[in-house]
Amino acid sequence: MEAQTRSLPFPSRQRWQPLRSGLINLYRYDREEFHYEEGRLLLRGNNGTGKSRVLALQLPFLLDGEVNAQRLEPDADPSKRIEWNLLMDRYPERTGYTWIEFGRRDEGGQDHYLTLGCGLSAVEGQTGVRQWFFITIQRIGKQLEVVSHAGQVLGKDRLREKIGSAGQVFEAAGPYRRAVNEALFHLDEYRYASLINLLIQLRRPQLTRRLDEHELSRALSEALPPVSAAVVASLAEVFRTLESDRTQLESSKAALAAVEHFLTEYRGYAEVAAKRRAEQVLRTQYEYEAALKEILTAEADCDRSLTELARLKADLERLSAEEHALQAEITAFHESSQLREAHTLEQAHRAAADKRRDADSAAAELADASRLRKSCAEEHQRMRANLEHRQLRLAAVMDAAGEAALSAGLERLHREWLGAFDAEAAGEGTLKQARERIEGGIQTQIEKMECVRSLNERFTLARTQFQRASDERDRLSGLLDDARECVTRAHGEHRSAVTSFLEAASRWTADLTELPLPFDQTFIDSVKEFCDKPHGPNPFATASWKALEELTGNFAERRAYLKQLETTQTEKLIRLETEHEGLVSAESLDEWGRGRILELQAAIAETQSQLDPVIDSIEELNRREGILRSEAHTAPADDGVRAAYDYSVAVARHVESLRGRMNEAEEYVRQKRLQLDQVTEMRDRTVEDLGIGRWIDDLDSLKDRVTRYRFALSSVWPAVESFQEAQSAGERAWTHLELAAAREERQKETLNELERRAIAAELGRDAAGRAIDAGSGEVLQRI
What we know:
This protein has 19 helices and 6 strands. By secondary structure, it is α+β, with helices and mostly antiparallel strands. The chain has a domain at 2-180: N-terminal domain of mukB. A hairpin with a 5-residue loop joins β3 and β4.
């Protein structure tokens, strides 16, 4: 009785875990208790010490309740009988219990206990066992004892009285299983049955030597809970986001390549533009340096001029004195006719010299004008060539931009603002307006793409949800088909169990000799009703026990009557034998004595003849009662029918549950189909209104094409500016050429006029010279 003196274990976790278990009057265990450590139990021992019996009679039996060997025995050996664990071929009748205690501690520190148990009773010569189950919050050894103080194991009725309102006693395995599931697991019946099947699979000894991978995988899969819809949706969202990120990365890479290509072209343009603008700066710098040099030279010239001015002032003062002296002499000369002639000749010389200098100066200016005209003509030719090159470049980038606009769906915008674009006549405002409008159109196209992308995401989400709902519906449909097949098999197993039960009942009734059964219509209807729905007691068992009770009562009355006769006759026989022995032992007998002895011998013989039939009747009655009890105890067991019926009911309920879930899934699929149709219709209508229906499923390609169009435009605007600059430069060169040609013509006319005047002055000079004599020459020389 060591188990009673050990301290009781206490739970330490919030989840249910085994604390202890025990066996009473089972196998070789009169009363044995096993304590678990953190929910685990280790059984060690040599072969034959009972480890397999503990496994068979504890878990998962106490969660399942089925006693057929395929589910009870670890090796599923059908030759092993459950009653052997009680009788062991040496007990005529035996009752035993197997039990297990679970415990948990709630968040408030309160301990909770739950004890599961099964009572088993077997009788020698009868197949199967009688069983009952119990669930209670009482602890065995503390609030509950299943063994009386006299060492007698309690029966079902006494156990029910002991448990009272602290638990419940079950007579069938099905309700017991449901109660265990509700108390410990909270699973649906199908998943609970799958869990028990998995435990039975994993409990098999030497599992790896006879491992059925497919069967084990199926059992593990059935025992797993279904994947949460929220988890599936989360994973779908992650994969969708991953695909979107991958698409965005590819788009970014394409945009990077396009930008790098643009930068390669734009660097050349920027270098040219920078060089062009640097030329103006350098030219200004050169002009500044030249002006600075001229300023320095002018300052030096100024210094020299100031020195020269001082000298000239001194000379002026000296010459002024000489002038006054000569003025008088000149006045005298003016009064003479010779002086006037000399003066006229001097004027003719001076006029001829001035006219010749003017003609020479005009010739030099004409030569400068001719060189300038030739330089301007050459510059104009270069500007024309540059303008033609820039015009070809502009046409090429315009064509490339037009093709890019066509591929990007912006041909109307491009045609409106650049189709008839006149780069020669376009001003800065027109060019700016075109750039702003085209950029606005591109931005609008991008906004359209983003709108359609948002609709595509909604469409993808709706399609994913619809597909997920369809997959769930198909999964439930497959489960429903499998469950229906299980229902069909369960009904077949139920019918087979009923057939086996009725065959066993037929054999049993055919072998009956003492036990009468009421084979009337009521009994037959009760048997039929029990086979269809084995909720109540077995009609055969009920009828046999009822008949047994009636017959044993009759037998008891008959036995009492016979016992009374036996007692009367025995007492009479004893008196007669006592009197006979007294007379026989007398030393002398008279005639009456001898006669009396003869009478007593006759009476003894007669009484003995009357007593022997009574004793034989009592023995016959005992024999018949033994046969009657044996026949009553061998009534056919209904465990198979009940188990098959409970299983078929559980599977049918599972089918109903799946059918309800299937209907909900169908409604959910219909809703998602409607949502998908609405989103699809709205997306198609929107893309048609936006005019980008061709790219509804290829927005990334459209985005790349818009990027290429924007890149092409980045070459158009510099090309237009470059063309306009070349055009302006050509116009300036043409203006310079016209001005140089006009100047050359004016210089030619001026030269001709001055040449005629110079020749006329020279002729007048020569004529005046011939008229003046030598005296005038002397006077002029003097002057």
